[in-house]
Amino acid sequence: MVFTDLRLPVVGAPMFLVSGPDLVVAQGQAGILGTFPALNARSTEAFGDWCDEIAGRLPPGAPWGVNLIAAPTNTRLEADLAVCVDRKVPVVITSLRAPRDISEAVRGYGGIHLHDVTTVQHAEKALDQGASGLVLVAAGAGGHAGRLSPFAFAAEVRRFFAGPLLLGGGIGTGAGVLAAQAAGVDAAYVGTRFIPATESLAPERHRAMILEAGADDIVNTPLFSGVAANYLRASVVEAGLDPKTLPAGARLDPDTPRPEGLRAWIDILSAGQGVASSAKVETAAEIVDTLETEYRAALTRIMPEGAA
Ligand SMILES: Cc1cc2nc3c(=O)[nH]c(=O)nc-3n(C[C@H](O)[C@H](O)[C@H](O)COP(=O)(O)O)c2cc1C
Fold first, then answer.
1. Residue 92 shares a structural domain with residue 123
2. φ, ψ for residue 228, nearest 5 deg
3. From ligand 1's centre to the CA of 252, what distance in Å?
4. To pair with 219 at 20 to 30 A between CA atoms, which of 1, 81, 175, 246?
5. Within a domain: residue 131?
6. Same structural domain, 79 and 172
7. Is the CB of 277 within 6 Å of ligand 1?
8. 55-59, 144-148, 201-205, 260-264, range with the lowest pLDDT
9. What CATH number did the domain enclosing 78 receive?
10. Does residue 134 sit in the same domain as residue 262?
């Protein structure tokens, strides 16, 4: 399986307005699997160019992946999927809906189709729809986080699914990567740790807030996108809002008005609870080196005799 060939069992998670070709290539060159959302490219044509660029810059056979938002609001879905099929993108990760036609198209050319889920019910549904594997997005994740404990979530899904499983949510250290493996999944799904990477597309303001923040600075609210997501407190305060008074819950009550002129992911910036793992701007290669050192140290700590 593709994850066992990686230097470390880590997939760089796709992040809107953060991951593009430079980050994906740097992650791949560092020995992990990088991914990006197709919508980060400004058109389907540009998305195709990004795929060609990544495939051309990575060593032959190095895996990489693309995230497709499978929602009716994504008018590019069909065309972007056609690009994935044409370029034989090795890993396609869908979010929101898990349509059977995407699974069939990706599996048809030998690709791996993973669907990301936040509940056990959605995990079962995605497998019914033909997904090759799942990304379990647990509590504490950047973006639209789940509410489940990673330990409970991974254990329950492993009871009925033996195939490829990734686990994300607050994993920012090599010890966290090892913990994900111990919890029964094949690889950790790591987003926030790579936001301040030199190669990321994140604006300076986003990087600076990440470097200053800790877990207590992450606020969870459905206010800005309609669905619960994790945001950096500093960006909420900068927008003139009081983080303590934001609505809670999985979905925004339809009667609650969304604040005008404040865009999720642009004005209000996202990060996961593992944000304290980043202390400086570094290259993706340096981040992966640190993750590996921490991973080996954690292994030695829990299995002192001949672990590493
Ligand atoms: C800034 C940001 C943007 C994100 N954009 C997307 C996206 O476009 N599509 C998606 O499936 N997930 C997106 N996510 C979620 C990540 O893919 C992943 O689930 C999450 O980052 C894992 O948790 P972590 O950030 O705590 O490592 C985003 C996360 C962040 C922090």
1. yes
2. -55, 130
3. 20
4. 175
5. yes
6. yes
7. no
8. 260-264
9. 3.20.20.70
10. no
Token pair for residue 65?
Answer: 């992946």
Task: Return the residue matching tokens 């190095």.
Answer: 62
Confidence of residue 306 (pLDDT cuts 50, 70, 90): low
Domain range for residue 249? 214-270
Residue 283 DSSP label: -
Q: Are residues 168 and 219 in the same domain?
A: no
211: tokens are: 């470097």
Segment 237-265 shows an average pLDDT of 92
Residues 259 and 157 in one domain: no
Same domain, 72 and 183: yes
C-alpha distances (whole Å) from 188 to each of 6, 39, 56, 122, 238 are: 12, 23, 26, 19, 32
Q: In this structure, is residue 133 part of a structural domain?
A: yes
Is 96 within the bounds of a domain? yes
Residue of 243 and 1 predicted with greater confidence = 243
CA 148 from chain centre, in angstroms, equals 16
Buried b (16+ CB within 10 A) or exposed e, 136-151: bbbbbbbbbbbebebe
169 Cβ inside 6 Å of ligand 1: yes
Residue 292 near ligand 1, beta carbon < 6 Å: no
Residue matched to tokens 């993706």: 284
Measured over all CA atoms, what is the biggest interatomic distance in the chain, rounded to whole angstroms? 59
Q: How many Å from the N-terminal Cα to the C-terminal Cα in the chain?
A: 22
Say if residue 143 is in the same domain as residue 94. yes
In a domain, 117, yes or no: yes
For residue 93, give the ligand 1 atom closest to its CA: 11
What local confidence, expressed as pLDDT, does residue 12 receive? 98
Residues 165 and 102 in one domain: yes
Mean pLDDT on 282-306: 94
